[in-house]
Amino acid sequence: MRQDEPLAMHTWFQLGGPAEYFAEPETAEQLIALVRRCHGEGIEMRVLGQGSNLLVRDEGCPAW
Q: The dihedral of CA 4, 17, 22, 10: what is its sign?
């Protein structure tokens, strides 16, 4: 997990400010662990997919 990750690097249009938290799980087990931890910490998750058809504001995305 990384903090303040620039989302422009992960979107089709190369736009967007930083995500408060950013993770790229590589296995189903890692994804499950990430979802459980975020749920336990009260952190809302968003799934970017491949970043196509996604616009992120320059201010970025806070964790809710």
A: negative
Assess whether pLDDT exceeds 90 at residue 53.
Answer: no
Cα–Cα dist 45/31, whole Å: 11
CA distances from 57 to 2, 18, 37, 48, 62 (A): 19, 9, 26, 14, 11
pLDDT in tens, 11-30: 888 888 998 899 999 999 99
Cβ atoms within 10 A of the Cβ of 24, count? 12
pLDDT tier at 50, thresholds 50, 70, 90: confident
The residue behind tokens 């975020």 is 38
